[in-house]
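Regression test attached.
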Amino acid sequence: MSKGPEFGGDIRVGSEIPLLLKRISRRQLASYAASTRDPYPVHYDRDFARAQGFEDICMDGPMGAAFMAELVIRWTGRQEPLRKLSITYRALVYPGDELSGSGRVMQVHLQDGVRFIECDIRLQNQHGKTVATGKATVVL
Amino acid sequence: MKSLVGHETQFCDGQPIEEGMIARFARSVGDDNPLYHDRRLAQESPYHGVIAPLTFVFEWNHHEALNVDEGGASIAGIPLPGRLLRGSNEYEFFQSLRPGDIITTSSRIGDVYQKKGASGALVFIVCQSRYTNQQGELLGIQRATYILCPDLEVGQ
């Protein structure tokens, strides 16, 4: 994996992480449930989801965390710099939604010769609604 | 509910993670990084082989102290009243997961507390989990907060 073109010495407060776009399909939600052995039918059975009060099957929240991790790793070019990631869920995501992931450097500080880069991350849907917010700690 | 604090579980299914599982996970989130699915390219990379996306390890074992099954969720076999929603997840990454790793998840209910929400009382359940491989190496730590909405009955 090569180093991300925008990642390196010129990172400063306010630097933006390149956008990541995801279109959420019904098949993808079912596939994620299968690939994580998640038996909870709210992610693949529309009748069950509706009976539970949801308008349709909905995205398993941590799929959003996978998007956030991908956003950061596309930027850093490697996994190792990403040390911590947190995600807070703000709204449900349904099939057909288009998510855009964005991030911004909020703080850069040196500790024991290591550069810590604290980033805010956000996932928004096609209506501009924030569905998840997060924070990432990246080291250089 | 408060008595659930300190409840601990440990889970290991003994099954090694396979390349195909990793590739399928990556495909389901639309991540086309070749390190997750292209064995030849991954061999030539600094990783000398396929690695998993970072959140895979936390998602592979849904056997945290708070167990979600086909009916919803329970703790230590106690069904939870109302609807359970995810509040937040905090992850710390220590090492890339590789094919062949056998994961053990050690979980503990760290906290249970109440807050008043717009639609009534909400119960927050905090579950802390550590994920290690068969060599005892720490791969990741997770702190998951779930929100139980007792006023939202199942079936509503």
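Expected vs. actual: identical. Chain B has a mean pLDDT of 88.
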